[in-house]
Prior knowledge:
By secondary structure, this protein is mainly α.
Amino acid sequence: MASDHVRGEMDITEHKSTFDGFMTMTVWSCLLTVVILLYFILVFAIGMDWMGALLATGVVGVVLGLAMSMKTSWYFTVAGLFVTGLIGGGIVSLFGAFLAG
């Protein structure tokens, strides 16, 4: 049994694709966590205006994507987060203005 094994003859394409998928998900998760936490840190810890923090976070997201050689889907994700932030921030601002009178 063990004597039949020849080193280097096993097909590892499935193992490689699994590892590549795991690494891709790890990089995506880490970068998304960094971008989201950066926005919250800028708004709540530093007290930056939400629009300025959103712009800064968008720029950092694009720079991180360039630094990590991310595909086009990363930039669409950053743009989607930016638009979601604009809509959410606008709704919160309008609601705050309505409550303030």
